[in-house]
Design a protein that fits this description.
Elements (H helix, E strand, L loop, with lengths): L1 H7 L1 H80 L35
């Protein structure tokens, strides 16, 4: 099988394709690197200032969300704590849940499919 591939030249095409793609990729990376160096000299301070503003905005939003989350967590804890203390002191009675009666399972078909006949059609 390997001999057939060598005879047909399939392995050589595969190697050439990979090396060609690698060369093109390297060329694009080099060009991008040059452009980034030019941009960093011209626009570097502006980009850094914009990046810093955006990071500060993200951190502020995170702090607000975290503060709201912690505050709501403590409010929930206070409610549960007061209810627990009332229960322990005997001031609060636990409501008894009514026992659920098991209903018998209705095996009959619903009205909308009672008249439907399923399965293969038999000749009469």
């Amino acid at each position: 099988m390997a001999d057939l591939k060598k005879e047909n030249g399939q392995e050589n095409k595969e190697v050439k394709t990979v090396s060609t793609l690698s060369e093109k990729r390297q060329y694009l990376l080099d060009e991008l690197s040059e452009l980034m160096e030019q941009a960093s000299g011209d626009y570097g301070p502006f980009l850094m200032k914009e990046l810093q503003q955006r990071l500060e905005f993200v951190v502020q939003n995170f702090n607000k969300e975290l503060q709201a989350l912690i505050q709501s967590s403590f409010e929930d804890w206070k409610i549960k704590d007061s209810q627990l203390r009332d229960l322990i002191a005997g001031n609060l009675k636990v409501p008894k849940s009514p026992t659920k009666k098991e209903k018998p399972v209705d095996i009959t078909s619903p009205d909308f499919i009672k008249d439907m006949k399923f399965g293969p059609i038999r000749r009469k």
